[in-house]
Design brief:
mainly alpha
Length: 122
């Protein structure tokens, strides 16, 4: 199969997006990519708007996808750390390009809004 399928039903962009879609997954991945290993409480502090339940769910899904790893240290109280996997690091260029596109899109939409406002005033 070629890298760029001609048949839209063979497109796996949806698979990629389903893996990282959502408000929190890209932020969690970026925190672990650039900040290194983090404990749950550190991630929660770095993303104050996420609920504890949502952070737990998102971490669990990312772990199931082998993008992050969870290590539990047998001590009292238990210590749990999360880190990006080698496989998870393969997302870095994709997230970088998506960030660049997001910046460009915001600029594009701001320009569009200026033109719409200008046309209304004419």
């Amino acid at each position: 199969m070629s890298q760029h399928p001609q048949n839209p039903s063979q497109c796996k962009v949806v698979v990629a997006l389903e893996t990282i879609v959502g408000k929190w997954k890209p932020l969690i991945l970026l925190q672990l990519m650039f900040g290194g290993t983090r404990r749950f409480s550190e991630l929660k502090r770095l993303m104050p708007d996420i609920t504890q339940r949502m952070l737990t769910l998102q971490l669990r899904e990312l772990e199931e996808q082998d993008l992050i790893q969870r290590v539990v240290y047998p001590q009292v109280p238990p210590k749990v750390e999360y880190s990006i996997t080698e496989y998870g690091k393969t997302l870095m260029p994709i997230l970088h390009e998506m960030h660049k596109w997001g910046v460009a899109h915001l600029e594009h939409m701001a320009e569009k809004e200026k033109h719409v406002a200008k046309a209304k005033n004419e």
